[in-house]
Amino acid sequence: MGDFELLERDGLARIGRLSTPHGRLETPVLLPVVHPDPARQPVPAPELRRKFGLSAVITSSYITWRTPGLRERAEAEGIHGLLGFDGPVMTDSGAFQQHAYGHVEVGPEEILGFQRRIGSDIATVLDVFVEPSADHAAAEAGVATTTERARAAREVTRGLLAVPVQGGLHGDLRYRSAVEASETGDVLAVGGVVPLLEQYRFPALAQLLIAARPGLAPDKLVHLFGTGHPAAFAFAALFGVDVFDSSSYHKFARRGNLMFPEGTVSLDGIREPFCGCRLCGELPLTEVARLPAEEKERRLAEHNLLVCATEVARVRQAIRDGTLWELAERRATAHPGLLAGLRAAVRGARVFLPTEPESRRNFRVIGATSGLRPSVIRFLSHVARWKEGKGPFRPLGWRPLVPSILRALPSEDAGGAMLYYEVPTPLGGVPLELTELYPSGCYLGMEEFSEERTGVAAPDLSDVSLPEARDQLEVWTRRHVRALFEWQHGAEGVTLGQRPFEVERSRRTGRVRALFHGGRRTFILDFDGLPRPTFAGAELLRSSLAPPRARIRVAADATEFVAAGRSLFSKFVEGGDSSLVPGSSALLVDGADRLLAVGRLVLAPVEMGRMARGVAVRVVAHAKAPEPMPEPEPTPLGEGEDAPPDRSTGQL
Fold first, then answer.
1. 5-267+306-353 in CATH: which number?
2. Is the pLDDT of residue 645 over 50?
């Protein structure tokens, strides 16, 4: 069985790798469907890697098995020899033909044995294709049969095995099938969805993925059968889909259609050479239309393949950049059905929250669903909890543009009662102390560029050398620091935030950049406004917070390595704070709660220990090198580098 290793992520979406006998799959990955008969394959399989950079393919073991000439060749030369492809080859089992023609002529044991004999890198169980229209009883019977076949297949298969996840549109069955498939499969192939894709029923697809997702094991690849249009790749990746397969590149070419991330275009209607891809640079589309039919079909298929491959690469880059939601929202404009699917996805925020990163560098508004992203849902929920027991909150009619100015406000009324302020933002009302946090602090929407500013003008207290402004700024800075620690750690954080910190500010923005205690840098305020502990800060946290708060416990076998600065691998995690999420700072401790290092989570706690390979927490500070380097402050367009920090505001 294979071991999937997660390398980078953006929520459920992962960049990872899986080893196969013919090389690694680097995910997300596109598997173009290759016909086993070379005469019916428009783009020769050997060209897929050389010309398009596609490292793996999928082909039909059923068509190969039922075609005498192909069957003999495959058994003699192997599937790689038949296709002329030396990379990983996945084979399906005939379930799609069952859907298309109502039956197949082979049994599950026979087709699985055939896949093993011809050297498939990933063999697929012959499942029961459950139609979306199936009632609960029929769908349940299909799931039971698929699970029974998968368990039998696992007993006789040592190689990689793809197990379909069925259940139709019944959420309970999709979840059950996902759990059962996770017990036997290396690739969890969500099936029975082609009719939904053909009918643009993306809301239904989103709902069944929301139902299945919690049951899909984190150490297995997720394959969504039939997701072949580039407009849908980002949408599927949001749910953690690692593998796409596409026969559409050829089907659309046969119809004279071109695929783009923005939608589908008929070649007959093209009058301008608008496509700038390298293939159209060689021969513009306006000239492709005049080619003989067979050559035109081949050129269109190549174009569609290149667009698909490029879009998968763009999805991978978006995962690295933390901008996959933005990309998915842009792509949703390709079709109203896809936009409806994205709306259905954001209604399932609970599925995304356990792996939703603590923050990202930016929050850019793309469309109507931007304000419904899981990051916003979590932020507003956390704001509501933070506000409990405080207030009332006084509304400020202006947004926090210069933090050092805004904090020069009275903190008590004449009777000594605490005054609380709330700033109206496009995400809702946000307490003034929390406005620099993600996503509020890095929000970029059309409101930022509106020429119509309303509300009360900000007081001109920018000269903090004035005694009254300086005193108020110091008071507000104390409140700000306490609020941040309370935000992260609750009531225990309030006590921690009352310690006598010294503050380092950015001259350009006025933001707090670091906190010092006892002459040591203890916390660095990152781009997301959160105080990230150095090793000295982690020591303060450990003494202030009761276990398991903010901790990940390291197995004895790995404590020496983690204390020396090595990353903590998943298999050496023994437990910890279940409220942490990817990107959270964590104290890495041994069984006696001795501090070993400070790290940033790669995996969610629920995933740790369940993945045989890969890093769970990346160490950023440890005893031998206690202080991490702060990340550079993002510089707005048109501005130069930040000035040296200022610690002139004194002790708190």
1. 3.20.20.105
2. no
- Residue 614's nearest CA partner among 595, 601, 598, 629 is 601
Token pair for 532: 């990230």
pTM across the whole model = 0.92
Q: What rounded mean pLDDT belongs to the chain?
A: 90
pLDDT-based confidence at residue 36 (cuts at 50, 70, 90)? very high
Phi, psi of 296 (to 5 degrees): -65, -45
What would you report as the CA-atom Rg of the chain, rounded to the nearest whole angstrom?
A: 28
Say if residues 440 and 379 touch (Cβ distance below 8 Å): yes
- In terms of DSSP bridges, do strands 89-92 and 257-260 run parallel, antiparallel, or are they unpaired? unpaired
Neighbours of 160 (CB within 10 A): 23
Distance, CA of 272 to chain centre = 37
Tell me the DSSP string of 191-234: -S-HHHHHTT-HHHHHHHHHHHGGGS-TTSEEEETT---GGGHH
Q: Where are the domains of the chain?
A: 5-267+306-353, 544-622
Contact call for residues 492 and 549 (beta carbons, < 8 A)? yes
pLDDT at 473: 77
Q: What separation, in Å, do the N-terminal and C-terminal C-alpha atoms of the chain show?
A: 57
Looking at the DSSP bridge assignments, the partners of residue 188 are 163, 222
Residues forming the active site: 92
Q: Which residues of 45-72 are buried (b: 16+ CB within 10 A; e: fewer)?
A: beebbebbebbbbbbbbbbbbbeeebbe
The band of 628, judged by pLDDT with boundaries at 50, 70 and 90, is low
Segment holding 562, helix H or strand E? helix 559-563
SS3 73: helix
- Reported as half-sphere exposure (CB side, CA atoms, 13 A), residue 624 has a value of 8
Structure tokens at 301: 């298929």
* Fold category of 544-622 in CATH: 2.30.130
Tokens of 514: 């670091």
